[in-house]
Amino acid sequence: MMSDDSRTLGEILGVPDWTARPAGELTGGRSDATQADVAAAVAELPGVADPSNRPIRLELGDTEDVIANWVKIGTGRPLGGQPMWLRYIHADRQRGLVLVVNAPHPCGEADLIVVGEPGVLCRSIIRDVCRWAFWGVGLWRLVARIPAHRSDLQDLARRAGFRFEGVSRGFFGGVVGGGDAQVWAMNGADCPWLPRQPLAIPAADTSPRSSEQVH
């Protein structure tokens, strides 16, 4: 289940503005950024490296083999190409959550895989994962494929802001218990978790002079 915690991960970590950065700033706008590039940039942000006395901890040191094993155990599917990931640990509950984007498309789309235990995923993490994916990694679109029989996960995707786009027939056919997948997607431009830029209001008075006004 998803918690109603409305704080951002930055607020939980004590650094409220750590994710408030424009697209690609974490990696200098590089389209070829790797997991190591993004993890190194995130690790340098104030307050992230010290996990003491915090209910939710961000782990950046996992290897690709470790992440691939968790994805295999949790979903039965392979990790995919060019993966990037974040892992969260709820220290009090001793539970974890892994979020992976992989197989990026040249147009900026990537597959999203979520593997976790109940009680970790909350609004603050969803918000910061969207900022990491759309701003830090520089993606344009996230796509999650959910087993057609998992209505609970489909409802979670809907509440997280994903939209149902159709069915991939036999997508999970190559794994144990496989079958069809529902396709849920989110575009960065429509993401409800990203702050919107304020409207540019001219500092000077640009209204017409009284002699030019039309009545």
Structural class: alpha+beta
What is the terminal separation in angstroms? 59 Å
Count of DSSP H/I helices: 5
Give me the side-by-side strand order of the main sheet.
Answer: 1-2-3-4-5-7-6
Portion in beta strands: 15-25%
Mean pLDDT, rounded to whole units?
A: 78
Helix content: 10-25%
- Poorly predicted regions are none
The global form is: globular
Order of helices and strands: HHEHEEEHEHEE
Radius of gyration: 20 Å
Largest pleated sheet: 7 strands, mixed
Total strands: the figure is 7
What does this structure look like?
The structure is a single chain. The chain is of the alpha+beta class. The protein is 23% helix and 22% strand. It contains 5 helices and 7 strands; from the N terminus they run ααβαβββαβαββ. It has helices at residues 9-13, 35-43, 64-75, 123-136, 151-159, and strands spanning 56-59, 84-90, 95-102, 109-116, 141-147, 163-168, 181-187. It has a 7-stranded mixed beta sheet, with helices on both faces.
Task: Give a brief description.
By secondary structure, the chain is an alpha+beta fold. It is built from 5 helices and 7 strands; from the N terminus they run H-H-E-H-E-E-E-H-E-H-E-E.
